[in-house]
Design goal:
The chain has 321 residues and is α/β, with parallel strands linked by helices. It has 13 helices and nine strands. The protein has two domains: 185 residues, Rossmann fold (3-Layer(aba) Sandwich); 118 residues, Orthogonal Bundle (N-(1-d-carboxylethyl)-l-norvaline Dehydrogenase, domain 2). The N and C termini lie far apart (57 Å). The structure holds nicotinamide-adenine-dinucleotide (NAD). The site of nicotinamide-adenine-dinucleotide has 27 residues, from helix 1, helix 4 and helix 6.
């Protein structure tokens, strides 16, 4: 039988979150809004302070978080494979706690990382021992369950609670995580074993990276030829060029309110993270011999954008829109 760690009657459950940057902070805020009690952990003090002001508590390290009595689950939202390795397997990582001192029976990594690291961390979790008082994970199992659940929807989707989660891992773990994920998103898609959520996310970001570059190229060309990018965006959005990059996350300042392009390309999904994802895609494609010429070209383009700015800054910086 699968224990039901989360349901509407237990929304005061204690949950931990490692990484409360652009995405993690918005997701954490949704959890607080849904009634979960939250402990956050981030290397960036300011990011922690913001969440504390919103009602969360703080843990100094992922290990301190993981050994908190009563903690049901940990969600991580970290930049890259290396950060995930460190937060789970490092000296002060979640899985570094003494045997049987681990409390959360569910570990949910929402970061976008490579599927191999994802599987390695899940295997390490499966070898860990839960504290004797920790709630049962699944069918009397005394080890934590782990899933990869990378997201799509960006910061606006995280703020609105309508992210898509692409989940890989044991079906029982995805079921256990469902109420938690439903507090932050609208679609929870089961992809298969550990790592398959990451594969789905990388394929999604291949299309995203290329489509943002294509929309930016088209809008900048139109502008050079004398068309107002606002008008051209309206045409795209009611024609066959319509896509998320043009409709929801348009790269032209002022076309869509509240997105990074309308606030100096601050916040959002950094170009640095897009380059990271395109590099992961190239590596995965090399591994299986799949041709990905557009990915290779897109990476070269995003490498020319300020790494700290949102990836839609490609419109301004590369295409001079
Ligand atoms: P971010 O850089 O804004 O936030 C990451 C946070 O993790 C930072 O606050 C950093 O201090 C913290 N951190 C790093 N290592 C840590 C550690 N060992 N312990 C504790 N905290 C640590 O990144 P983001 O934009 O929130 O993206 C996070 C992940 O989500 C990435 O994998 C990204 O690819 C993915 N993602 C981002 C978006 C987006 O629009 N930003 C959309 C979908 C997916």
């Amino acid at each position: 039988m699968v224990a039901a760690p989360f349901n509407s009657s237990v929304q005061r459950l204690l949950v931990g979150m490692v990484g409360v940057g652009n995405m993690g902070a918005a997701m954490a805020t949704r959890l607080l809004g849904a009634g979960y009690r939250l402990i956050v952990c981030d290397r960036n003090e300011e990011a922690v302070n913001r969440l504390q002001a919103a009602g969360a508590k703080a843990a100094a390290t992922p290990a301190a978080l993981a050994s908190t009595p009563g903690l049901s689950a940990i969600i991580s939202m970290l930049p890259s494979s290396e950060h995930v390795r460190q937060a789970y397997l490092g000296l002060e990582g979640i899985l570094s706690v003494e045997p049987q001192e681990l409390h959360p029976h569910l570990l949910v990594d929402c970061s976008t990382i490579d599927p191999i690291t994802s599987r390695e961390v899940a295997a390490a979790a499966a070898a860990a021992q839960l504290h004797p008082n920790a709630a049962e994970a699944h069918d009397g199992q005394r080890t934590p369950l782990m899933i990869d659940a990378p997201v799509s929807g960006g910061v606006p989707g995280a703020q609105a609670g309508n992210l898509t989660f692409m989940c890989g891992g044991p079906p029982a773990a995805v079921d256990a995580a469902r109420p938690l994920l439903e507090a932050m998103g609208k679609r929870i898609i089961y992809c298969g074993d550990n790592g398959t959520g990451q594969t789905a996310k990388l394929c999604n970001n291949l299309v995203l990276g290329v489509s943002m570059a294509a929309v930016s190229e088209g809008l900048a060309l139109g502008k050079q030829l004398g068309l107002d990018p606002r008008l051209l965006s309206e045409i795209f959005n009611t024609s066959s060029a319509r896509c998320w990059s043009s409709e929801i996350y348009n790269p032209v300042p002022g076309v869509v309110e509240g997105v990074p392009s309308s606030r100096g390309y601050r916040g959002g999904f950094s170009s640095q993270l897009m380059v990271k994802d395109l590099s992961l895609i190239l590596k995965a494609a090399e591994h299986c011999g799949a041709p990905v010429p557009l990915t290779a070209e897109a990476r070269k383009l995003y490498e020319q954008v300020d790494p700290a700015l949102d990836f839609s800054a490609i419109y301004k910086q590369l295409y001079k829109g």
